[in-house]
Design goal:
Helix content: 25-40%
Structural class: alpha+beta
Largest sheet: 5 strands, mixed
Distance between the termini: 16 Å
Radius of gyration: 18 Å
Number of strands: 9
Order of helices and strands: EHEHHEEEHEHEHEHE
Shape: globular
């Protein structure tokens, strides 16, 4: 489904990026490969802007030897402030302080369709939000309905229909809904 909204509504979508959404990928691809394929990031952007990566609640340093699989949960962020931010950031001098919680499993799953739960935080959400939403994400229908309920005046159209028509059918949707959001 394609949602067109007024440009001023873009900042509000950071809530969805932080609350959680999903992306489809392939089991067995490296974290770096996932960031390339599912999010469209290039290596320069990954190295400069994606400073914090958690996979299943564990910090990731080696993006090329850590692999994703169906059902994984990934959280991404820019550089985090303070001592905790420094320690949790990837590939830094202080990573030994978190050695007990870092990713231990570097096994590669067999290639198969995979759906990952995602969260994007901090300045990274602001930096990539519009591009990611234009590219498309999967959002739980209930979460989407709750999020959009008070945003009807900001919605220009959904799949060529006006906001009122869209909201009439929104309650009937279940599970994950594939959406693309553009801001005009």
């Amino acid at each position: 489904m394609e949602i067109a909204m007024v440009a001023e509504a873009a900042w509000g979508w950071n809530y969805i990026l932080q609350k959680g959404f999903a992306l489809d990928s392939v089991s067995g691809v490296s974290v770096r490969g996932f960031l390339h394929d599912a999010l469209g990031f290039d290596d320069e952007f990954i190295d400069s802007s994606v400073r914090t990566i958690f996979l299943n609640n564990s910090p990731v340093d080696d993006l090329d030897r850590t692999y994703v699989k169906d059902g994984d949960r990934m959280a991404l962020g820019g550089a985090m402030p303070g001592v905790v931010g420094i320690v949790m950031g990837r590939d830094n001098f202080y990573k030994s302080f978190r050695s007990g919680i870092e990713i231990k499993d570097h096994s590669r799953a067999k290639a198969a369709p995979a759906r990952l739960g995602m969260k994007i935080f901090s300045t990274l959400a602001v930096e990539i939000g519009r591009g990611l939403l234009a590219r498309g994400i999967l959002v739980d229908a209930g979460v989407l309905a709750d999020f959009l309920r008070d945003k009807e005046p900001e919605i220009l159209e959904v799949n060529g229909r006006d906001a009122g028509e869209f909201f009439e059918g929104l309650g009937d949707m279940i599970g994950y809904v594939s959406i693309r959001v553009i801001f005009v």
